[in-house]
Amino acid sequence: MGASNSTVQNVSTEQRDVENEAASTGALPMLRRAFSKVANPETNAVPRENLQQCFSLAYKGQSDASNIPKLFPVLLDHLGPSIVDQFFTPAKGQITWVEFVRGYNNCCARMSASVSLNMLLRVLRLTIGRANMPINLEIEFDDADWKINGFLIPSDVILLLLMCWSMSWDCGSLKQSECKVSHSPPDLNHLVLSAITSCAKVDSGLNVWDSDFSSSEVQIPAGKFVTWVLSTVPCLSDCLNQFFHARLQNQATAGDESVPSNSSVGDVSLTTECDNNILTRGRAWAIGLTQRSTINEEISGVCFSRSEDGMDERLLYRSSAHGKGLNRFWSHVEGYKGPLLILVAASSGQSHEGSSIVRKWVIGALTNQGFENKDLFYGSSGCLYAISPVFHVFPPSGKEKNFVYSHLHPSGRAYEPHPKPVGIAFGGTIGNERIFIDEDFARVTVRHHAIDKTYQPGPLLPDQGFLAVEGLVSEVEVWGLGGHAAKKVQDSYKKREELFTEQRRKVDLKTFASWDDSPEKMMMDMMSDPNAVRREDR
């Protein structure tokens, strides 16, 4: 077999080079197993149809969801052949061992995010072309690199995002040992609006609060779109190579009794998505695309959860379920020492000619540590998010470190002439925060980015303006993204606090030496002469 010939001393230089490149990523043993499973033993090569089947994604059922284009199932039918055409160049209709390894290296070798994104767009163009749909991306090739020119329209962007989501969903499915559960592709309009507002020249007629852009012909230049992806959702470029690797890995383990195996063709039902959380699957996936860390894996667990009842242990607090207010919030997040994602759904209105317009929006903040009860800002890193109706991310600027402020009412303190604000805040300075949530979780104030040097500038709300925007809070959620270790530490902390509270409730009368030292005598004295001088410490 071609894979075993690499051990012979007289292998060609070409074969040695491609094997060394694959070995540098640690994938060579996996490739040998996968090749042996899909290759024809007689020809010692992989039939083109086998690889097309390996990378195929098929959807079952009919889509009645308004956020899913009718042509999307057709597009997915051509994904597998397009990937094979893009990365494998068989000389005689079958892929040899060298061509097989070279194809893997072309897709999954170490490369920059811009090169990965370039490949993703080429696969999109090839897939849309196979589906006989128009697209205005132009591919130019010179001696150094591929260049992509032309433009996208909103329908192209939503197809690309849904294609990437499907590949990410498939990667998560292949990692599951249990049976695969079908889920609907999520609503990704907030990402499409982000691309439109960031890249395209739109007139004042675009209403992002109530915009139907499915049939819009707004042109998004390819160069600006690449810049938007790399700055807003950089992990989008990883979806293709992760899917490519996961499918070959699945082939390598197919038939092994010790390793659970899934079908080589992914099935996803196109039913309407039902999300009761602020953190819907589409929003979770968008946030995960901004993070290249373990937080990405935790967010993916929310996005591609297989839980049938919809509950997730990562959800630490939800105001509608646990009660509104800073004290209720604190009882559920105290002791958690990992990254936290807090989301706020609110609405703001404005009066115009006697009518009131109510606009609903969602913002969020990601912290790299748990909350602390302090009357000053703290933290080491974090991000702010504009989530709905338009998605944007605001990472640290590096100028200041006013990441988080969380202050409860002081207990047992004397009068303070200048009390610090009670609530939760992100960015800005005390009394002039970029985001401030009051202690009752009734109102949230969003200020202009000019007062904040901690996070990068940009509007958290569309048409925000320079004046502060005050919104009525409808829901607050906090998600723990520190994994099982952080949740275990918090559970231990809560058990310890419950034990201390129970001990403080118990009063042992034997510890009092006489009637004069007993609490009953003290209470009777206070009732008879409340103005008498008492000992401060008993």
Explained architecture:
Strands 8, 9, 10, 11, 12, 13, 14, 15, 16 and 17 form a ten-stranded antiparallel β-sheet that branches. A three-stranded antiparallel β-sheet has the order 4-5-6. The protein has a two-stranded antiparallel sheet with strand order 1-3. 38% of the residues are buried. α2 (28-38) packs across α11 (239-253), α5 crosses α7 and α12 (281-288) runs antiparallel to α13 (294-303). By secondary structure, it is an alpha+beta fold. It contains 17 helices and 17 strands. It folds into two domains: 4-173 and 184-255, no CATH class; 315-485, no CATH class. The chain has helices at 13-24, 28-38, 48-54, 72-77, 79-87, 97-108, 113-130, 154-174, 189-199, 222-232, 239-253, 281-288, 294-303, 319-322, 326-333, 483-505, 519-528, and strands at residues 46-47, 57-60, 94-95, 137-141, 146-152, 220-221, 266-269, 315-318, 340-352, 355-367, 382-388, 392-394, 405-407, 423-429, 432-438, 443-446, 469-480. β4 (137-141) and β5 form a beta hairpin. The radius of gyration is 29 Å and the shape is elongated. The protein is 36% helix and 18% strand.
List descriptors.
alpha+beta; 2 domains; ten-stranded antiparallel beta sheet; three-stranded antiparallel beta sheet; 17 helices; elongated; disordered N terminus
Lay out the secondary structure.
Blueprint: H1 13-24, H2 28-38, E1 46-47, H3 48-54, E2 57-60, H4 72-77, H5 79-87, E3 94-95, H6 97-108, H7 113-130, E4 137-141, E5 146-152, H8 154-174, H9 189-199, E6 220-221, H10 222-232, H11 239-253, E7 266-269, H12 281-288, H13 294-303, E8 315-318, H14 319-322, H15 326-333, E9 340-352, E10 355-367, E11 382-388, E12 392-394, E13 405-407, E14 423-429, E15 432-438, E16 443-446, E17 469-480, H16 483-505, H17 519-528
Parallel strand pairs: 2-7
Antiparallel strand pairs: 1-3, 4-5, 5-6, 8-17, 9-10, 9-17, 10-11, 11-12, 13-14, 14-15, 15-16, 16-17
Helix pairs in contact: 1-6, 2-11, 3-5, 5-7, 8-9, 8-11, 12-13
